[in-house]
Amino acid sequence: MRDWDDLRYFLAVARAGSLSGAAKALGVNHSTAFRRIEALEQRLGVRLFERHRDGYALTLAGDEMLEAAERVDAEVDTMERRVTGRDLRLSGPLAVTTTDTLMAMFLGRSLASFQAAYPGIDLTVLLDSQFFNLSKRQADVAVRPTLEPPEALVGRKVSDLAFAVYGSPDYLARHGRTDDLAAHRWLLPDDSLAHLAAARWQKKALPGVAAAMRSNNLSGLMAGAANGMGVALLPCFMADPAPQLERLTGPIAEAASALWLLTHADLRNTQRVRAFMDHMAAALAGERDLLEGRG
Fold first, then answer.
1. CA–CA separation, 110 vs 143, rounded Å?
2. Among 195, 217, 251, residue whose Cα is nearest residue 104
3. pLDDT profile of the chain (295 residues), mean per 10
């Protein structure tokens, strides 16, 4: 195999189990992925995949090739990170991943001041509730709420993230401010947010409570609470500044998370990564009262 780019196509199909999934991961169309796999099998003279109606499955030859291809892929990723880690320029691309709620309600001012301070850095912000793979350079830096940062990443904890129970003045006028939390109409996270400490606290503290609404997004829960649908457990940095909401409780320790700035160990000495992390750490330190529920 002389065209190492073929490995990307082979690995993408093996990992996705389908041509459509591989094409989406690679940013190409279905027919391109099909032609590359067909050409690769013809050059090697062996079938790498069995074609089924529900997807592609590796043959024995494909299984053997997968092990070697994964090693090559990991070495290429490592080489790229280490080379990038020696980059001393305060210019060039920088990809940052964070959540939509942090971006929409909190990070904008700090990112704007970073961009003004380092206009030569081409900043890209990727919004997703899941960690992008920093090992594969899907992003360079993560600004994430988490209690357990991935072991492969390094960085610093900015602050704790406090959560409290909120409701609208209209809802509270209709239902009262009772301290019996189980008596309220609740807006709850769905199963996709079950990993959050806040969701675990709710499941433990309010077993069997009926849900007026569920959502896979904290912004959805906040919008429901602001419009009087019920009460919700929300991050204080989101809900405290909102005039449509009032607190029913103080910060709930068992529901707290933490805000981290994270990068891959091989990238921590890249100048633009260091500049971003230092700038954001300093900017966000001034927001700790809001983040920790004292705002």
1. 12
2. 217
3. 73 89 87 88 88 87 85 73 59 90 90 93 86 63 90 90 97 90 94 91 91 93 96 96 96 96 86 92 92 90
On whether the CB atoms of residues 214 and 96 are closer than 8 A, the answer is no
Domains and CATH numbers, the chain: 5-84 (1.10.10.10), 92-160+257-291 (3.40.190.10), 163-255 (3.40.190.10)
- Residue 244 corresponds to which amino acid? Q
Tell me if the pTM is above 0.85. no
For 208-255, write each residue's pLDDT tens digit: 888 999 999 999 999 999 999 999 999 999 999 999 999 999 999 999
Distance CA 71, CA 243 (A): 54
Length of the chain: 295
Give the C-alpha distances (Å, rounded to integers) separating 281 from 117, 141, 143, 217, 232: 14, 12, 10, 26, 29
Do residues 287 and 111 touch, judged by C-beta distance below 8 A? no
